[in-house]
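Lab meeting prep.
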Amino acid sequence: MSEFSLTVDFSSIPDGERAYIEGEAFLSEIETPTATLPLRSPLHYEIQILRNKEDFLLSGMVSAVLEYPCARCLESVDLALSGQIEATYKKSPKKISEEEIELEDLENVIYYEAMTFDLSERLIEAILVEIPSKVLCKEDCKGICPYCGENLNNVAEHRCKIESELSPGQFLSALKRIAIDDTDSNNNQNDK
């Protein structure tokens, strides 16, 4: 993953005042828990920081275009995303209970000791939560042939040779053999 840091010194913001940050980050990819996704555009951000005594309220927008695979045919899709950035930075208290920490995690509260913050995680997080659970190249995507893997969107009438060579009975007998083997294996282990 490309190294990205957006470090901001909050100490220069006077109490009751706002600061604005706008810019672009040129990353090659974003890492998710399940995949590394290439970026097709810079990460554009607009952030507003409001200081209220020792608290800093962060809000704004971030947008980018990611390359993401279609859930049906696996072709790459340019996925334009726009997310909201929201967080509250509070001075770290001397003592805090576990219950308070858990509650404030839900409210997106971040405790600080120094007045310099790296906001890059907030930007990436705002993009990642906007990725839909199912991405399609087009609404009527036909997907891929389950036998040979051919993209059915690229072929008017697909006639799979592998599918025509296999009868439904062959699949069922193969599944039955697997189920019997699995049952025998479990019985043998229980006998020990």
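Slide two material, second protein:
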Amino acid sequence: MIDSQNNNTSLNLANYLAVLALAVVLLNATACVSEPQKLDNQKVVNKYFDLAGFVQTQKEAMSAASSSCTKIVSVNEKNENKAVNSDELEQELEVFIDADINKPAWSDKYIIDSLKVNGILQQLKYTTIDPKLKTRVLEVVFDSEGNVSEIHVLRDVKSVIADTYNEMYLWPGKGYEINTIQAVALSDTTRLQVKVSCQN
């Protein structure tokens, strides 16, 4: 019975690592293809929320505080508690960075909606009008002091290898959640959830 449980745990972990690795490879490959060339003396002005820059600061802070974080990994609804590894944490947060929509060629590809309460910005929402773009929706929620309190991303990546759908949440200083549905050619669909919670 113990050997069977160990085998199941190893299989779940192997599935988790395989799905995560493939998802990151696909997203990075897509980002490389879509990234426009920039001249050294060209000043880039972001039209949209700077998701990549924001997540980079979060990645550094959370990596430094990874010992205070806990992780639950679910593969096809089978949960497993895991120790938080700073390298894995940084790799997982790369998925958010790859969802950044600040590309010059995309400056007219997203509809921007905003919500204000008593003149104070509460939420920004970017929705793509181009079916070819991978980041479908980016939502940024702000607290009463104007600080980012939540980031929500919907991302859809299609390739000849696999179709990968991500719904992701980032709570600054508190953790993140990555939900992935991946359909690989000639294989079963895999559902993966990674949830990391950190103590302030």
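Talking points for slide two:
The chain has one domain: 2-35+48-198.
Residues 2-34 form the longest helix (33 residues).
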